[in-house]
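Dear colleague,

Thank you for sharing your sequence with our group. We've completed the structure prediction you requested, and as agreed, I am returning the results in plain text so they can be pasted directly into your records. Please verify that the sequence below matches your submission; if there's any discrepancy, let me know and we will rerun it promptly.
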Amino acid sequence: MKRDIQHVPYGYEPPAKERKGTLIFYDSFEHITDHELEAAANTAAERKFTKLVLYPLHEETVRRMSKEPVRSYYKREDRLHEWKRDQGRSFITIETLEGKRKKYTPLDTALRHISDVYPPPYFLYLTPETANLFASYSSFEEWIVKLRLILSAEPQQLHPRLAKFSHRWDVAGAVQEE
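Please find the predicted structure tokens below.
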């Protein structure tokens, strides 16, 4: 077995990683425009995330969450793949868990899967409507301490739990404090 010996000066410490964390765009992608997808990608690049994960929801999941009609999963997924090819950015990933399951996937299951596969810390990129839906779930308080939210726009109506945990979320266009 060959060993590669490296010599470094005394006291050398490797540089810290500039990019870290995962930004997960959790949505049905039925009404999301290319401009909104670009805004999410720009947010991921500006905030130096390792990955931007686009997580399209299966029709059954959307039906149980919001009761709105959506196109079939594979059509929305194909559109996302086409958009990704046009972008040419290597840090964008499309998660296909719901396409493999082909049925309703609870948000808890999706978040557990994401935390097993992608590097922490985790940030959920949500539309205000989806954020209010997420806040209405009983497991919201369990998850909000494990991840942060980035909303695509300022919400018109704010769920009481979102108001309670306002320190755990911000709006994508807002200036980040450092």
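Summary note from our side: Residues 73 and 101 are 11 Å apart (CA to CA).

Kind regards,
the structure core
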